[in-house]
Write a structure and sequence with these properties.
single chain; 205 residues; alpha/beta; eight-stranded mixed β-sheet
């Protein structure tokens, strides 16, 4: 499920059901945003992407608390999407959780990964307190990153915590955001494990 967030106050937020599709339909908000060329307005000296075809690419920020080698299916979705976008000539940054001795910053498959130091005990499972701590600590990383890179779109994965931080950064920077709900973060789905998380994220719906 994708939701396009308001870039400015007063704009309406649209939600479309796309959980059954892994590839973005041509008419989706993200697809339309990806088709746009660089804006003609000055970017204040911030870095812009340049595609291999000689046309201006997009700077895309992906927010996901899980990214390989940690996490499950959602982690692999974000990885595959980021790698394919980078292969098309876009500059892709991913902000995610750090686990164990993973580097704070690395570039892999032409994707720049920024890992936020936080507490995470399991490679494949993340508790609500762990996700909450990551959400808070990630904001300083996001603010610093957005001050140096002119992002064309922010893509938040999972309503909690990725959607919350995507909404926060969108309002702070004025950049549009897209939200992808991957399943368990949808209220009413998997309630035996995430009932509290669903309750806390309900205002986003």
């Amino acid at each position: 499920m994708h939701a396009i967030g308001p870039a400015r106050h007063g704009e309406r937020r649209r939600v479309v059901d796309s959980r059954a599709h892994r590839r973005e339909p041509a008419s989706s908000p993200l697809a339309r945003q990806l088709r746009r060329r660089s804006r003609t307005s000055p970017s204040g000296g911030k870095r812009r992407a340049r595609s291999t075809r000689g046309i201006a690419g997009l700077n895309i920020l992906q927010l996901s608390y899980e990214y390989p080698p940690i996490g499950g299916g959602g982690s692999r979705v974000v990885f595959g999407l980021s790698r394919e976008l980078a292969a098309r000539g876009h500059e892709v940054h991913v902000v995610t959780m750090r686990f164990g001795g993973l580097p704070l910053r690395e570039r892999c498959d032409d994707v720049t990964v920024h890992r936020v130091p936080c507490i995470r005990r399991s490679k494949f499972h993340c508790s609500l307190p762990e996700a909450g701590l990551y959400s808070v600590r990630a904001r300083s990383v996001l603010a610093d990153l957005a001050s140096s890179v002119h992002f064309d779109v922010i893509h938040g994965h999972f309503i909690l915590p990725g959607g919350i931080n995507a909404n926060w950064l969108s309002r702070r920077s004025g950049r549009p955001y897209v939200l992808t709900a991957h399943g368990s973060d949808v209220p009413g789905y998997n309630p035996h494990r995430l009932q509290l998380a669903h309750f806390l994220s309900a205002p986003l719906w």
